[in-house]
Amino acid sequence: MSMSSGQLEPRPASGEITPNQHETALVGLQSFETLILDILAKSGLPTSGILVGVEQRHVLMESTSFALMRLPVDQRGQASYISKMIIAGSVGLFDAALNYLWDETVLELRKRVVNFDLQYFYEVAEKSDNKRKDLKDEDDLPKLDDQKLLGGCREIGLISDIGFQELDLIRYMRNWASAAHPNQVELDGLQLANWLSTCIRHVITLPYDHITAQVQKLLVKVKEKRLDDQAIREITAFFVNLPPVQADPLASGLFGRYTDLTTGPETLDNIRRLWPELWQKVSDETRYNFGFRLGRFRANGDQDQAVLARQLIDLVAGATYLPSEERAWELDGALNDLIDAHNGWSNFYTEPPIARRLQELVGQHGDIPEGLTRKYVLGLVEVFLTNGNGIAHNADSIYRDLITRFNPQQASVALRSFTDSAIASKLQQKRPQEQWTELLGLIESKLTARNDRELLEAIRAFPSKPNLLARDPGIKVQLKHFSG
């Protein structure tokens, strides 16, 4: 039926919306806009710059249809925030539309966490033992900020590294360019539609990869009943080709479950039988972290949990990974607190006192326990790069001071920090890119090894944005020369 008849085009059998339906809807919206803006003007309220132009809305509506093609029809009935996003976008409120899109993304991520293994997720996502005590069930998920939700989902394999970077950019834009906070950022229709496509592709419809699916089955088996010898052999065979990036969060999850005082005896038996084989695949950084957690249990008076933690460490003759002094776990806790403050609101006020505490713990010579080296350097690089919105000036001078205390080994880790997903994600933004250039200048004189200096030259000569460094074939070849 033609548009001149006053009726909409019939919807095709596929459930997709036709261009003519878009045109008809936008004509109606333009009339509605004129009416609303006239009412605002007569009320003495602002009308300029309130709504995005009709052309951009048209781009959004057309592009949205292509994005929705990835979302199965049977799943669309649950996507209420996508409906709200499209409605907000159609009337020209793009900042509100972005907010609704992020709400849908967070909702879907939480669903995936609950359907996977909530306790395991909490063990991996929340690094603070004290804060983890308050995370019990699904109702506690909102206690985790969006950064921890994204990071935890990446660590346990619910989203990919590339998906994490793309979603983290949307999170950043939601924080600083949506209706969540006052801003003057202009969004366009194609951006919104592309972000919708990203959320559908990397969250809503993303299937588990093989390893993630196997980990889920393993977690169910471990807590379901006491495993027999055949089941133990099957699971430990799965550990053989497990890389540290998957072994580390699995070990952290099992460690947390073992030291949970509510865990039953059958599950404790299962973990003890699996632990020695899994330990062989765990990175030194994670092994040291178990020692730090033992130290924190003791410091906090959680003696029963300390006993359980020591059982697992003794089971694999891991005494070498115990903290040699109290300063080690204090440093670890300060790093966790600093990252939490950096990713939270009002970070300009909350970061400096924690940065000063870290500076005191590090000492004049910058001595860091071996097991904390990578975490310390990456954490310091992350906060130095800023959150993309501005520099915490009262903390920045401290970060620069600590970076100047790097030894050659620590400077080498900082040079290669672009391979870390969280760092690479930050390097998509302008201000962190500027800080990255500053960082290279601060560590240049500390890079004594030939491989380090050659890599520095290649990084400075790289023609594209630094968040893409780890994907460059030439850079990848140079990275193979480093063992740690």
Question: What's this entry about, in short?
Answer:
The chain has 484 residues and is mainly α.
Structure overview:
This protein is mainly alpha-helical and about 475 residues long. The protein has three domains: about 110 residues, no CATH class; about 110 residues; about 150 residues, no CATH class. The chain contains 25 helices and no strands. The longest helix is centred in the N-terminal third of the chain and has 24 residues. The chain is globular, with a radius of gyration of 25 Å. The N terminus is likely disordered.
Task: Draw up the topology in text.
Blueprint: H1 19-42, H2 54-68, H3 73-76, H4 80-90, H5 94-116, H6 118-125, H7 129-132, H8 146-155, H9 161-177, H10 189-204, H11 210-224, H12 229-239, H13 244-258, H14 265-279, H15 284-299, H16 303-315, H17 326-343, H18 347-362, H19 373-384, H20 393-404, H21 408-415, H22 421-426, H23 430-443, H24 450-461, H25 473-479
Helix pairs in contact: 1-2, 2-10, 4-5, 5-8, 5-9, 5-10, 6-8, 6-13, 8-9, 9-10, 12-14, 13-14, 15-16, 15-17, 17-18, 17-19, 18-20, 19-20, 19-21
